[in-house]
Write a structure and sequence with these properties.
Chain A is mainly alpha-helical and 321 residues long. Chain A contains twelve helices and no strands. Chain A is globular, with a radius of gyration of 20 Å. In chain A, 47% of the residues are buried. Chain B has a domain of 75 residues. Classes of the chains: A mainly alpha (321), B alpha/beta (238).
């Protein structure tokens, strides 16, 4: 039983490695890379994009897994909690204000704004959940917050000048290409911290399948665990959105796929599988996005939708049967 | 204080008290049948004993562990300590059905070992699992997924989960509610067997009085905001 899981995890790891290796030399052809420019392309552009995609995929898939379990809803994901939309609103604000105040650097302020926006929404959700528990009500609260921030974003888009509007629209389509050295360090460290935190909470989360009362009688402090899980999710989603924009579908599709593939109650295995498959999906999306189609690159959010959309529809109808 | 369960001047309810103050002592193992009309507070009493709802006043002591008062229970830290300690003394079973397509019956049962935090599971965990599965006669379904078993099988798996928790007290809220008649007969027989063989105190709320009366060792009844206790079954016609 255990060895079967290990085998699947190993398979995921190989798939991940193959995808990364395939993606790295994509523009330069397969080696040997002779010219300076080939190496520059690989080290300066492709490698950071691959690392970013891996980190982002891991963060979003693990967040999705946690939220789906916590809210007992197979269609939940980081999007639903409104965390991504909070980040989007802040970024829209920054884009508009930086065009008025040109001395503020966008490459620095946009990730920061994304993180602040995500954290603000998360803080709001934590306050509400401390008062009202963490059932379906938090999910609905997240949806409403998403609508509200969406409306404010629309207002900002309406007021924005055409250049800013285009910039913001491009940001909201997601990209793994906008990170440089320092960003990768921050992203990687935050991800590692978040994943270890989530990993340590997995046994408690697995027991919480049985409902609050039974899990409390089994020694789980459900309120404290849920609080920590929400904070952890906010951290992971916040950092991913800050650097890559609001990426859809990875957080919703991957946890479902993992559950179908693994069929296990061992949530530590589920978390590892989510991290690996999430990274795979992000890399595949990046691969699709880096192919020139009639000299146009498809944005990442379109690629994730192409891969994830049909699968999520399949899950929807599978559950109704 | 060697009593397995000791209750003193307990008032229970959500906000307002449902019942006159209750004082009682249970010295040892047995099968206690709790009866009463809908809405009299059977579930609330059981949840209060299980530490899931704080008592309004009075004290509950289980095997020397005293449950926290209302004020103490509201802090995260006290709550954590209580859940942790109590999970070695008392197991709780309700009727909430879980239908997951990735959790097997034996995974569910092994969740009962969570308080002992063995990862991976030890010999003792697996031995308790085998014992519980055989005692309840569900060895054939231990590898089935939770969405493929019947309500009766779910109830048995749930009871097995409480058994491997290895606690002196088990509290069950209407375990016979969704079962067909033969399964109900079997359930009460099993509960009595468990109480006798394993030396456990099992407190069960139920409406199936004819069956419960045959197998119970003590009887509690809530009527007119009063908990009465008897060694013999209550007369159904009174």
């Amino acid at each position: 039983m255990q060895s079967r899981h290990l085998l699947i995890l190993l398979f995921c790891l190989i798939a991940l490695a193959l995808t990364a290796i395939f993606l790295l030399p994509f523009p330069a052809g397969f080696g040997p890379w002779s010219s300076e420019s080939d190496l520059t392309i690989v080290y300066q552009f492709r490698l950071p994009a691959v690392v970013t995609a891996i980190c982002c995929g891991m963060a979003l898939a693990v967040s999705g897994h946690i939220l789906q379990q916590l809210f007992k809803n197979t269609l939940a994901g980081p999007y639903i909690l409104g965390v991504s939309s909070g980040a989007s609103l802040m970024v829209a604000l920054v884009i508009i204000s930086t065009s008025a105040l040109p001395f503020i650097s966008r490459s620095f302020s946009i990730p920061l704004a994304g993180f602040v926006g995500a954290s603000a929404i998360l803080f709001l959700i934590l306050m509400v959940s401390a008062r009202f528990g963490y059932g379906a009500i938090i999910l609905l609260f997240g949806v409403i917050i998403g609508q509200l921030t969406g409306a404010l974003q629309n207002l900002l888009s309406y007021l924005a000048n055409p250049n800013d509007l285009k910039y913001f629209t491009l940001w909201s389509m997601g990209s793994f290409n906008s990170t440089i050295d320092m960003d990768l360090m921050v992203f990687g460290c935050t991800l590692a911290g978040g994943l270890i935190w989530a990993f340590s909470l997995m046994p408690s989360l697995s027991v919480m399948v049985l409902g609050d009362e039974v899990s409390q009688s089994l020694g789980v402090n459900t309120r404290l665990v849920a609080f920590q899980l929400l904070a952890c999710t906010g951290l992971l989603t916040g950092i991913a959105t800050a650097y890559c924009g609001p990426i859809a579908f990875i957080g919703m599709a991957i946890p479902n796929m993992v559950k179908i593939l693994f069929k296990t109650a061992n949530f530590k295995h589920l978390l590892l599988a989510n991290a690996l498959l999430g990274a795979c999906m992000a890399l595949i999306s990046q691969m699709i996005s880096s192919v020139d189609i009639a000299s146009v690159n498809i944005p990442v959010n379109v690629s994730t939708a192409i891969i994830g959309g049909p699968f999520v529809i399949y899950i929807l109808f599978r559950n109704r049967n | 204080m060697s009593d397995i369960l000791h209750i003193e001047a307990l008032e229970f309810g959500r906000g307002t008290s449902l019942c006159q103050p209750v004082s009682l002592s249970v010295p040892g193992s047995g099968l206690i049948i709790l009866s009463g009309r809908n809405g009299t507070g059977k579930s609330t009493l059981l949840k209060t004993i299980a530490g899931l709802i704080p008592a309004l006043s009075g004290t509950i002591t289980i095997k020397g562990t005293r449950l926290p008062s209302n004020a103490q229970a509201s802090s995260f830290r006290t709550a954590f300590k209580t859940f942790n300690k109590l999970s070695h003394q008392l197991a709780y079973v309700n009727t909430d059905r879980v239908k997951e397509d990735y959790i097997k019956v034996q995974d569910l049962i092994l969740f009962g070992r969570f308080p002992y935090l063995n990862q991976p599971h030890t010999e003792k965990d697996l031995q308790l699992l085998d014992e519980a599965v055989n005692l309840l006669g569900i060895a054939a379904i231990r590898n089935k997924y939770l969405n493929t078993i019947s309500d009766g099988e779910w109830q048995k798996a749930n009871i097995a989960r409480a058994l491997v928790q290895d606690t002196p007290v088990i509290v069950m809220d209407e375990p016979s509610a969704f079962l067909d008649y033969p399964s109900k007969v079997q359930l009460f027989k099993d509960l009595r067997t468990i109480a006798d063989q394993k030396n456990k105190l099992i407190i069960v709320s139920t409406h199936d009085m004819d069956l419960a009366n045959r197998h119970g060792t003590a009887f509690w009844q809530i009527e007119n905001h009063q908990l009465s206790i008897s060694e013999t079954p209550f007369d159904l016609n009174s």
